[in-house]
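Saturday, quiet lab. Running sequence design on the structure tokens for the scaffold JK sent over.
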């Protein structure tokens, strides 16, 4: 079988017809659809350029060894779709409407910088994900899940999961957890966006954020039309005088393990913060991003347990399982529940039901508690390895914050400054780090310091690589 020739004077490349040969050899019942798909792809890809005249249906059918009716039907279908154009007595031509598709999809997911050593905070060890236990839970759920549970879920989440989460949060974090006020969300990011939209709907246009703090909070509230107001953090938590003077009625906090400084809010500061919320009829937004990980003692309970009517509490599995699961929870005061649930409904009609049922199963049979213990052992070892490596290779450095979470703050001796030069040298050596200054709000007046202060993440770095990475960092800094 030879490929059909171009119509006289058209200049159509014979290579374009190669796409049609497999279609002509397809089984009889699918041959027509295959021919249409192959011809459509030839136009989309540009192998048949706009303005190319096609062979007559009789000639193309003869050359491909198929019936003329199949070719005629293909021409008519693609003409109706806009890929081809035709005129009585003028033949069939490639139209100009189609454009070549992009050759591939681009991956915009955040990735490791590809450094020899990566100490950028925020990422857990994804190799610790419990694949076997997760797969077993998935098999069980697929076998037992009622058909109706695959329909649109309650926007708050499956009752089974909300009940299991309420038990978990009450037991591990001291939360006053009513399953009716728990909303299953796509991570803390969606919880933050929901709260931002709810604040905006109530006429609130500003929200206080910790400074230094997570840059993510600023961006998420801004997307909801709410301006983030930076409020300084001292050794006990968010400073109360600036908070009172700011005029805000909502404030975002990380009281169990402040990000990034690593402090725990003192009992007095917690009490003062709740007094402020009651005085202004405001709300405290508690981000418990890594509250399960404390290495020297039991973690401090959540702030929400002290006043459920003035604290909205959120957390996720991003540090304990994997951020790619996009699975978290939001526990809201009763007076906020209806509008938050309605906003969740209009945003996405609820979290995927199968994922919810799977995680509920994972919680119910104790797999999640086992995973937390496994992560805690691994992360404690890596925290100790990082502190030891800093002590060896950066003598005189200070590590601040409590023994918890997935990062430390390291303040290096003055001889390693200034910061800009240090960061440049370390980057050239292939070591990725994050300066504490990157967590300071842009509107905050900077204070020059000769000492380099780093937020160093360790959870995703094996102990041996931690030691080697700190050695490379020291070598670059002194070279």
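Result came back. Writing it out in full:
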């Amino acid at each position: 079988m030879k490929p059909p020739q171009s119509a006289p004077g058209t200049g159509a490349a014979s290579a374009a017809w190669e796409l049609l040969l497999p279609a002509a050899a397809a089984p009889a019942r699918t041959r027509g659809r295959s021919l249409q798909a192959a011809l459509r792809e030839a136009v989309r890809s540009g192998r048949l350029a706009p303005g190319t005249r096609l062979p007559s249906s009789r000639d193309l059918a003869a050359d491909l060894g198929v019936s003329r009716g199949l070719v005629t039907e293909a021409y008519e279908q693609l003409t109706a779709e806009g890929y081809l154009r035709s005129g009585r007595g003028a033949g069939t031509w490639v139209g100009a409407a189609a454009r070549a598709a992009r050759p591939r999809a681009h991956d915009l997911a955040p990735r490791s910088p590809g450094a020899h050593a990566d100490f950028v905070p925020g990422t857990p060890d994804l190799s610790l994900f419990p694949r076997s236990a997760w797969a077993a839970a998935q098999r069980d759920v697929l076998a037992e899940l009622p058909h109706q549970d695959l329909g649109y879920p309650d926007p708050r989440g499956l009752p089974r999961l909300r009940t299991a989460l309420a038990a978990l949060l009450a037991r591990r974090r001291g939360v006053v957890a009513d399953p009716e006020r728990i909303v299953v969300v796509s991570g803390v990011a969606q919880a933050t966006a929901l709260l931002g939209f709810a604040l905006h709907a109530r006429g609130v246009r500003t929200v206080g954020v910790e400074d230094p703090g997570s840059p993510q909070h600023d961006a998420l509230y801004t997307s909801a039309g709410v301006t983030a107001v930076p409020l300084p953090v001292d050794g006990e938590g968010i400073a109360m005088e600036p908070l009172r003077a700011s005029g805000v009625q909502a404030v975002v906090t990380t009281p169990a393990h402040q990000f990034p400084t690593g402090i725990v809010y003192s009992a007095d500061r917690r009490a003062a913060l709740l007094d402020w919320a009651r005085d202004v009829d405001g709300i405290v937004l508690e981000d418990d991003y890594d509250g399960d990980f404390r290495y020297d003692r039991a973690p401090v309970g959540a702030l929400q347990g002290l006043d459920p009517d003035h604290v909205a509490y959120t957390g996720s599995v991003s540090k304990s399982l994997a951020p790619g699961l996009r699975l978290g929870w939001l526990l809201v005061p009763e007076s906020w529940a209806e509008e938050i649930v309605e906003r969740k409904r209009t945003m996405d009609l609820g979290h995927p039901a199968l994922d919810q049922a799977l995680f509920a199963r994972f919680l119910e049979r104790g797999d999640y508690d086992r995973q937390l213990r496994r992560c805690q052992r691994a992360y404690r070892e890596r925290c100790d390895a990082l502190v030891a490596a800093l002590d060896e290779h950066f003598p005189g450095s200070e590590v601040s914050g409590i023994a918890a979470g997935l990062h430390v703050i390291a303040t290096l001796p003055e001889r390693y400054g200034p910061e800009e030069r240090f960061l440049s040298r370390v980057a050239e050596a292939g070591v990725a780090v994050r300066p504490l200054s990157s967590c300071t709000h842009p509107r905050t007046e900077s204070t020059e310091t000769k000492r380099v202060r780093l937020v160093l993440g360790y959870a995703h770095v094996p102990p041996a690589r931690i030691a080697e990475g700190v050695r490379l960092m020291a070598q670059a800094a002194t070279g």
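Notes for JK: The chain has 15 helices and 16 strands. The two ends are 70 Å apart (CA to CA). Ask whether to fix the surface positions before the next round.
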